[in-house]
UniProtKB/TrEMBL annotation:
<feature type="transmembrane region" description="Helical">
    <location>
        <begin position="734"/>
        <end position="756"/>
    </location>
</feature>
<protein>
    <submittedName>
        <fullName>Predicted exporter of the RND superfamily</fullName>
    </submittedName>
</protein>
<feature type="transmembrane region" description="Helical">
    <location>
        <begin position="632"/>
        <end position="652"/>
    </location>
</feature>
<feature type="transmembrane region" description="Helical">
    <location>
        <begin position="225"/>
        <end position="242"/>
    </location>
</feature>
<feature type="transmembrane region" description="Helical">
    <location>
        <begin position="699"/>
        <end position="722"/>
    </location>
</feature>
<feature type="domain" description="SSD">
    <location>
        <begin position="630"/>
        <end position="758"/>
    </location>
</feature>
<dbReference type="InterPro" id="IPR050545">
    <property type="entry name" value="Mycobact_MmpL"/>
</dbReference>
<feature type="transmembrane region" description="Helical">
    <location>
        <begin position="279"/>
        <end position="300"/>
    </location>
</feature>
<keyword id="KW-1003">Cell membrane</keyword>
<dbReference type="InterPro" id="IPR004869">
    <property type="entry name" value="MMPL_dom"/>
</dbReference>
<feature type="domain" description="SSD">
    <location>
        <begin position="249"/>
        <end position="374"/>
    </location>
</feature>
<dbReference type="InterPro" id="IPR000731">
    <property type="entry name" value="SSD"/>
</dbReference>
<feature type="transmembrane region" description="Helical">
    <location>
        <begin position="602"/>
        <end position="625"/>
    </location>
</feature>
<feature type="transmembrane region" description="Helical">
    <location>
        <begin position="352"/>
        <end position="377"/>
    </location>
</feature>
<dbReference type="GO" id="GO:0005886">
    <property type="term" value="C:plasma membrane"/>
</dbReference>
<feature type="transmembrane region" description="Helical">
    <location>
        <begin position="321"/>
        <end position="340"/>
    </location>
</feature>
<dbReference type="Pfam" id="PF03176">
    <property type="entry name" value="MMPL"/>
</dbReference>
Amino acid sequence: MRHFEKNFGRWVIKYRWPIILICLLLVVGSASGMKHLRFSNDYRYFFSEDNPQLKAFEALQNTYTKDDSVLFVIASKEGSVFTPETLAVVEELTKAAWQIPYSLRVSSITNFQNTWADGDDLVVEDLVEDARQLTSSEIELIKETALNEPLLIDRLISKSGQVTGINVTINLPGKALSEVPEVAAFVRNMAEDIRVEHPNIDVYLTGMVMLNNAFPEASQDDMQTVIPAMFIIVAVVMGLLLRSFFGTLATLSIIVFSALTAMGLAGWTGIWLTAPSMSAPTIIFTLAVADSIHILVTMFQGMRGGLTKHEAIIESLRINLQPVFLTSLTTAIGFLSMNFSEVRPFNDLGNIVAMGVLAAFVYSIFFLPAVMSILPVRIKPGQKSKKYVMERLGELIVRRRRLLFWGMMAVIVVLSLGVYRIELNDQFVGYFDERYAFRTDTDFVNDNLTGIYSIEYSLGADGQGGVSRPGYLEKVDEFAMWYRSQPGVLHVNTITDIMKRLNRNMHGDDDAFYSIPGKRDLSAQYLLLYELSLPYGLDLNNQINVSKSATRFTVTLDDMSTNEMLDMEARAHEWLKGNVPESMSVRGASSSMMFAHLMERAIKSMLTGTGLALVLISAILLLALRSLKIGLISLIPNIAPALMAFGLWGFFYKDVGLGLSVVSALSLGIVVDDTIHFLSKYLRARREHGMEAQEAVRYAFRTVGTAIWVTSFILVAGFSVLTLSGFKFNSDMGLLTAIALVCALLADFLFLPPLLMKIEEEKK
C-alpha cells in the first residue's frame, strides 16, 4: 500500500491527458442517462409496496371508490354563501366540474340529494335548483336544511354558513405522469375564472390531487433556487478560502461532474425523482468539495514549503489517498444505510448521493491532480497562510487539554439530554411552507370548513345484504356516536344517517322516526327506493360495496399531530373490539393513517440502518487505522455530534418529523470524515516521525487543520442552503445536519485531541 501511494501520483501525472479524456467520457456517458429521469407525482410513492397501511388503504379504495379528489372551497366576502349569486356560482361550478379530466363524482350542497315525503311517495331531488331565481324564503329553507344535515355540516358547509365546498372525486388511470398536472392546471383555471367573474368570492383548492401536484412543484422549485444557491455559495467560499482561481475552477468541475454522474446513473437505473431525492444534487455539491479541498490544501502547503507543483501533487496524493478513500467509503455507507428507511424517496436519495460521493472520489484522485498538473498554479514559497492559525490553535488545545476534555465532556452530556424532550410528530400538509398555494389553501379549509385528515373503515356486515340488518346499522350508529363525542372529530360520514333520514321521510317526515328502521326488509326497501331515485354519478357505490356486505365509515379530523391521530385510531379499535362483532372490528385506513404510521416505521427501520452503518464504519476504521484503541476512541467523536444535534433540536424545537428520521445515518457518514483525516495525520506523526501524543496533535493541526476547517465550513454552508427549500423534509434535514456538522467540528477540534492525549498520559 505504501509503495502504491508513493507511485500513484507519478502515474497520474505521467498519463494525465488520457486520464482527463477518460474522466470526461465517463461524465458524458453517465450524464446522458438524465434524459430518462422522471418525477413522481403520487404520494403513494413514499410507501413501500408491502407497507401494511398502503395495502389496507388500497383494499378499501378497490372496494368502494378512490378518494383522490379536488376540493373547491367557496368563501363569500358578503359573509354568507346562502345568496342567489353565491349559490349560483356553486351550482354552475358543480355542473362544470364534470368536465374536469378523470372526474368520477361531484358533491356539493347544490346537488345534495335532499329527500322528503309527498304523501306516500319519496321525493329525491337536488337541494338547490336554478339558484338565481330563488326567493329569500326558499333560500332560508335551503339554509336550514343544509345546516341541519349531518352529511353536509363540517364537510361541505361550515356551521357559520360562510364557507362551502365542492368535492370532485378523481379516478386517475395511472398511465401517464401528465394526469395529475393536467387536473391541477384545469381546476386552477376554473378557480381563476370564478375569481375574475366574481370578485366578491374567494376560491381555494385542496385535496389529494393538489397534494400530489405539490410534490413535483416543490422538486422543481428546489432545482431553480436551492441548487443554484448552493453552487454560488460553494464557488464564493472556495474562492475566498483557497485563494486560487484554478484550484476553485477545478474543484467546481469536480462537483459538477459528480452531480451529473450521479443524476445520470439515477436515470439509467430507473430511479424516480421526488421532492426529497431532488436534494441530492445539493448534497453532492457539498460533499464532493471535501476530497478536493484536502488534496489541494496539502498540495498548496507543499508548494509553500518549496516543492515544485508536480512534487506537491505527488506528496498530496501520497498523504491523502488513504484518508480520502476511507472518508468516501464511510460517507457512501452512511447514505446507503438510508435504504433501510421505510420511505422510498429516502432510499433513492441515499443511493443517488452514494453514487455521487463515489464519483467525487474517482474524479478527485484522477481528474483533479491530472488537470492541476496542467493548469498554471503559482504559490510563492513561504507565503503566509492559515497554517499559522492552526498551529496556534493546536498549541492552545495542548495547553488547555484537561479543561477542554472535561468541559467538552460536560457539553456533550448536557446537550444529549435534550434527546429525551423529542417527540415524534408529523403532519403531511406541513411538509410544504406558506409559499405554496396548496399549503395556504389547505390551512384556510382546515380553519374554516373541514379537516383534511381522516380515518376510514370498511365495516363488515356478515353476509350479502347484511348492511340492511337493524342490529348491524345500530352498531354502526353507536360507533358514529362514539366518534362524534371525541375531541378533534369534525365529521362522521356513515350510511346510518341516510337510513335514519329515509325512515323519517317514509313516516311523513315525522322527527320522532329519525332512527334506524326496526326491520331488515324495511331498511332494504328504503335503500333500494333511494338508490333508484339517485341521478347518474351520485349512487351509493362510494359508501356500500357491491354485495351490500360492508359499508364505508369515514371520520374527518381536525388539525392534529400524528401521535394524536394514532391514539385516536387505537382507542377506536379498542371500542370496536369491545362492542361489535368480529366482522366489524377492523383497523382504520386512510392516506392520513398511512403517513401517521410511516413516521413510526421509518424511525424503527433507520435505527437498524444507523446501527449497521456504525458497525461497518467502525470495522473499516479499525482495519484502516490498524489500531483497536484508536478505532474505539474514534467512535466517541463520531456518535457525539448526532446526539448533540438531536439534543439541541429537542431543547429548541421538540417535534421530529419524517425528514429527520435519516439524519443520524446521514450525518454519521459525513462527520466521520474529519475524524479520519485528523487521526490519519496523528498516527502518521506517531508512526513515521516518532512524535509523542502532544506533538502529534500539533502536527495534525498543522497539516490537516485548515482542510478540516474549510471542508466543515462548506459542508455547513451547503446543508444550510437546504433550509431555503419550501419542502419541510429538505429544510429540516438540512438544518439538523448542519447543526450536527458544527457539533462534529467542535468534537474533532476540542474533544478528540484532548481525549487522545489523556489516554496516552494515563498509559504512561
